[in-house]
# Entry
Amino acid sequence: MSPATTLYRGHEGMWMWVVHRTTGVAIFFFLLVHVLDTALVRVSPEAYNEVIGSYKTPLYAIVEAGLVAAISLHALNGLRVIAVDRSTWALRHQKQLVWWVWIGFAILMLGFLPRHLMHAFGGA
Amino acid sequence: MTATADAPAEVGAIPSMTVTLKILRFDPDGLDGREPGSEYWEEFQVEAHATDRVLDALHKIKWDQDGSLAFRRSCAHGVCGSDAMRINARNRLACKTLLKDLNPARPITVEPLKGLPVEKDLIVDMEPFFASYREIMPFLMTSGPTPERERLQSPEDRAKFDDTTKCILCAACTTSCPVFWTDGQYFGPQAIVGAHRFIFDSRDEGEWDRLEILNDKAGVWKCRTAFNCTEACPRGIEVTKAISEVKKALTTGEV
# Structure
């Protein structure tokens, strides 16, 4: 039994590493499920239709929004990591680039979410 | 002009205050009825000046309150690299951290470095850290006869590795690295800094021996550019930049 130690107080770089890891693992599990549900068509087309049909429910619409969020964040931060690896300027301005990642993410989600939620809940 | 004697002694006096230090202790022997190997937080109140350092506060505890408190320090001036520890959840040198910079109104937490085995209180076993450093062969490697005079180098060539010569092996960078916490096999930022210092030295000929060692899966490719090392370095070394330059040397094949 050891007492709780403090959480290391890292800066933007460390938290973006956490975000990158978390979204990466989430995307991996999505791909796993995606391979399985697509492979289902070989087993039985009816079962495939049923599974894909359940993705049209509101619950899955929210999960789908989370998936788009995870992929956009992972992609934008991936560009930041590439930039940091390739240029000294980016390396020295990596914190500023973190904010650009979040701004880009906000723009993508603002474009995507209204349309997506209208489809899911607007009944259109 | 007569000098007036009523100028009180407080001119320039530094205000003193009471600070609380919350220290994560580890008792390997089990003194005072504790289980051997028990770990616990202990709080100490210290009278200190705003200009005192965390090391001064630790000294006051050790000298006046609890002699069993164990920590390393040697020069006490930020050169020897003995007193790196986790202060308020960040790696710093206790001798270079002023109390006034830490919000002394709240308890200051002091913990041993993370990722290395704790021996007692704030003392960790540095051997795994030094082992990584030895692995990258931190010494001049040359071929041919030793010259009569010193090996000359242009200021431009010297500037290439100037940053990484500042390292004092305090382990603040390596033990701030999230990759090192979870994977003890990783060489860690310090060993890469140590290698960088020789890889980019024009007088040294062992660069490819070192680059080959760092090309390992526990080498530079484990770096995830979290920048904790760069921010923790008490010498202001751009550690992530040094790691990046080693990666670049490996991908381009040019030093």
